[in-house]
């Protein structure tokens, strides 16, 4: 049951059929110049060659430490910053091309940010904020407001009580519900959630996660869910992508990646989650130090200076993202036959 | 510096602590005891009064705008009786604090070394060179790589994890007995968080520090704390050892916190068990148990009368009318929720 009366079937606009990825990204690169002194020109390699697909109707989780490029990737996908190079296809159409101009793509893809307060206009009521997007896109005012109220009710905020309030008059969890309602106001197919639940209290976080699951089923949405909390990502994602210093370290089904991680970095990330077992506390941190600086990433495999499996070859060869199992790809020489790493498996897996 | 204290005196003891800002009673009758050399975690949601409780121990609130009642004893001192001069000796010397956001807590126009040396020389008569040597030793102690160089860094030149380590070094510079930590790892990456938590545990063990850590993350609390106190709406609803709280919770709120964690969800597509509603407005506190409107066990009595604190086993205290029912409900396992997915 849809709350939007004249809502068309979300798959009506579908072009390529269910097997075609909704979003297909290849060779995505974004470098930011650093202006400091007179020395040689330096750049922050925020996103440095990222390829992935987002399938229709799935939730793709993106995890990684700060500085790994996950938020930059999200902003590139939304066109909030311009990419240096790389191709982005939305349902088979190049974004920004004639068949899928940015304006119509942005109606199909919406984003929810971490800071629920900063992402709402403080001088608009909740209802005005939600109705703003549809109005700009040509929905008559009265109808846009009606839809905003229906969406408010759908995200669990009684329109009578909340529609006329300003962002500072409601709690963080309620504001994030408003942001979700606003993202849905244009009936998008793709929703990017960039740390959307990270700032919420645990008990509120659980409520919002449940709401996201319900909305996904009801409106046939596809999610890209960015978070640093592996437990939340495990709960909500179908597939998980692990990023490290602007590259993809590992991607695959979440059960497979988080239960049997192939990349030593993913293993270290999992080991640093608190155990919640007083008799079995973490004894040793697998990773020492802070995430390195993306200005001068190390050569070869970017993770090799912090890696327990590192060998000479890791400093020279950049590992490709190769399959270790069906759908599960890992960028680590120790997992790839014939890479020259002593721990590499002997047999070649059929890709 | 510090007065010799009898061995039986606890490191921190709060009795009937009440803190109000204007008409809002933020902390409403907290009794807490931290033994020497132990680590205690105060957990709760935002607005539960956990940070205010912690800051009250150092009397960090301006006297004009806050009202503190009750009794605070820390490191053998009666905190509320200290005059201005004694208070500034007490802060940093007997009890010190680390904050959530080290970039805001450090002064941006002085180097980290200068700030540590200033703190040492403020409390002790010691030469500049000796103070610098001690600052260097402190940075080594908290395992900052190349400490000699880092001593002359400004806070913005360090990464988040390193700043938090420098903050811990600053807090330890005058050899306090008690370390208060206000969400020390919330702003850090998971891989750095575990390193800082392990460092706190090591310092507790090696220096015999008593630690109070405030956090909203039950996982982080279990990693460092011997005992855990759960706060809700300005009251402590349950205290016990970390094991008792995680394995055998007796308060419905603690149970809700444990159940709503995403790692508890069994299967994909299952829903998380949530605590309905949101925390109460502290300015209009309802009578009775503050958790009653959100509680799955609440009865008439809960809405009328505040439950007394009951001791369910030695040291494990719970403020609830239905402790046995709650514990039984937890042991029975999660109630299977209908999967409402299309």
TrEMBL record, chain A:
Q: Which UniProt keywords apply?
A: ATP-binding, Cell inner membrane, Cell membrane, Hydrolase, Membrane, Nucleotide-binding, Repeat, Translocase, Transport
> According to the UniProt entry, what is the EC number of this protein?
7.4.2.10
Q: So what does this thing catalyse?
A: glutathione(out) + ATP + H2O = glutathione(in) + ADP + phosphate + H(+)
Mind telling me which InterPro entries this protein's record contains?
Answer: AAA+_ATPase, ABC_transp_ATP-bind, ABC_transporter-like_ATP-bd, ABC_transporter-like_CS, Oligopep_ABC_C, P-loop_NTPase
Alphabetical list of Pfam families matching this protein:
ABC_tran, oligo_HPY
Q: Which GO terms describe its molecular function?
A: ATP binding
Q: Does the keyword ATP-binding apply?
A: yes
**Which enzyme class, named as a word?**
translocase
Q: Where found, per UniProt?
A: Cell inner membrane
Q: What does this protein do?
A: Part of the ABC transporter complex GsiABCD involved in glutathione import. Responsible for energy coupling to the transport system.
- Assembly and partners? The complex is composed of two ATP-binding proteins (GsiA), two transmembrane proteins (GsiC and GsiD) and a solute-binding protein (GsiB).
As for family, the record states: Belongs to the ABC transporter superfamily. Glutathione importer (TC 3.A.1.5.11) family.
* Name the record gives this protein: Glutathione import ATP-binding protein GsiA
TrEMBL record, chain B:
Q: CDD domains given for it?
A: ABC_NikE_OppD_transporters
Q: Which residues form the ABC transporter domain?
A: 12-258
Q: Where in the cell is it found?
A: Cell inner membrane
InterPro entries registered for this protein in UniProt:
AAA+_ATPase (IPR003593), ABC_Ni/Peptide_Import (IPR050388), ABC_transporter-like_ATP-bd (IPR003439), ABC_transporter-like_CS (IPR017871), Oligopep_ABC_C (IPR013563), P-loop_NTPase (IPR027417)
> Entry's SMART domains?
AAA (SM00382)
| Entry's Gene Ontology molecular function annotations | ATP binding
Alphabetically sorted, this entry's keywords are: ATP-binding, Cell membrane, Membrane, Nucleotide-binding, Transport
Extract the PROSITE patterns matched here. ABC_TRANSPORTER_1 (PS00211), ABC_TRANSPORTER_2 (PS50893)
Source species: Methylobacterium aerolatum
Cited Gene3D superfamilies: P-loop containing nucleotide triphosphate hydrolases
* Name of the protein: Peptide/nickel transport system ATP-binding protein
Q: Which family does it belong to?
A: Belongs to the ABC transporter superfamily.
Membrane topology is: Peripheral membrane protein
């Amino acid at each position: 049951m849809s709350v939007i009366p004249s809502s068309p079937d979300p798959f009506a606009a579908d072009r390529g059929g269910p097997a075609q990825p909704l979003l297909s990204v290849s060779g995505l690169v974004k470098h930011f110049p650093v202006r400091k002194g007179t020395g040689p020109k330096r750049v922050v390699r925020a996103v440095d060659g990222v390829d992935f697909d987002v399938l229709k109707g799935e939730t793709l989780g993106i995890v990684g430490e700060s500085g790994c490029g996950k938020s930059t990737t999200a902003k590139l996908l939304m066109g909030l910053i311009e990419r240096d190079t790389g191709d982005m296809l939305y349902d088979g159409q190049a974004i920004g091309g004639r068949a899928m101009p940015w304006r119509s793509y942005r109606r199909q893809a919406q984003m929810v940010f971490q800071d629920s307060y900063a992402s709402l206009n403080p001088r608009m009521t909740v209802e005005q904020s939600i109705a703003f997007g549809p109005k700009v896109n040509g929905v008559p005012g009265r109808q846009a407001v009606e839809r905003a109220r229906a969406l408010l009710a759908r995200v669990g905020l009684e329109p009578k009580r909340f529609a006329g309030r300003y962002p500072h008059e409601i709690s963080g969890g309620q504001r994030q519900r408003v942001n979700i309602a606003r993202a849905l106001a244009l009936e998008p197919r793709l929703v990017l959630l960039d740390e959307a639940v990270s700032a919420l209290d645990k008990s509120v976080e659980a409520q919002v996660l449940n709401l996201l699951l319900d909305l996904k089923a009801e409106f046939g949405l596809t999610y890209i869910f960015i978070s640093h909390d592996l437990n939340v990502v495990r709960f909500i994602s179908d597939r998980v992508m692990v990023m490290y210093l602007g590259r993809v370290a590992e991607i695959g089904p979440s059960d497979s990646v988080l239960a049997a991680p192939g990349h030593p970095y993913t293993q270290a990330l999992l080991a640093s989650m608190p155990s919640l077992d007083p008799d079995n506390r973490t004894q040793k941190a697998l990773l020492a130090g802070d995430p390195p600086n993306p200005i001068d990433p190390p050569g070869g495999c970017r993770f090799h200076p912090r890696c327990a499996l590192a060998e000479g070859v890791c400093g020279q060869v950049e590992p490709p993202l190769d399959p270790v199992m069906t759908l599960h790809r890992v960028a680590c020489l120790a997992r790839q036959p014939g890479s020259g790493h002593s721990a590499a498996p002997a047999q070649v897996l059929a890709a | 510096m510090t007065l010799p204290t009898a061995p039986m005196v606890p490191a921190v003891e709060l009795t009937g602590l009440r803190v109000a800002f204007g008409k809002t009673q933020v902390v409403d009758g907290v009794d807490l005891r931290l033994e020497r050399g132990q680590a205690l975690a105060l957990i709760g949601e935002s607005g539960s009064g956990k940070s205010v409780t912690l800051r009250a121990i150092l009397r960090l609130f301006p006297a004009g705008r806050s009202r503190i009642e009750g009794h605070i004893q820390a490191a053998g001192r009666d905190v509320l009786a200290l005059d201005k001069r004694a208070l500034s000796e007490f802060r940093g010397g007997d009890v010190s604090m680390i904050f959530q956001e080290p970039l805001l807590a450090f002064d941006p126009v002085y180097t980290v070394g200068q700030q540590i040396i200033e703190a040492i020389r403020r409390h002790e008569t010691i030469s500049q060179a000796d103070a610098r040597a001690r600052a260097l030793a402190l940075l080594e102690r908290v395992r900052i790589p190349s400490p000699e160089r880092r001593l002359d860094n400004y806070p913005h030149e360090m990464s988040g994890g390193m700043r938090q380590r420098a903050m811990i070094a600053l807090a330890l510079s005058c050899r306090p007995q008690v370390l208060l930590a206000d969400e020390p790892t919330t702003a850090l990456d998971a891989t750095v968080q575990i390193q800082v938590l392990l460092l706190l545990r090591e310092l507790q063990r090696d220096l015999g520090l008593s630690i109070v850590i405030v956090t909203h993350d039950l996982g982080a609390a279990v990693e460092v704390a011997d005992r855990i106190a759960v706060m809700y709406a300005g009251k402590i609803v349950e205290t016990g050892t970390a094991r008792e709280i995680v394995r055998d919770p007796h308060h419905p709120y603690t149970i809700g916190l444990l159940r709503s964690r995403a790692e508890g969800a069994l299967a994909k597509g299952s829903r998380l068990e949530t605590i309905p509603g949101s925390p109460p407005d502290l300015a209009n506190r309802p009578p009775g148990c503050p958790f009653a409107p959100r509680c799955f066990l609440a009865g008439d009595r809960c809405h009328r009368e505040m439950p007394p604190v009951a001791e369910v086993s030695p040291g494990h205290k719970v403020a609830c009318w239905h402790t046995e029912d709650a514990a039984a409900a937890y042991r029975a396992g999660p109630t299977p929720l209908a999967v409402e997915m299309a």
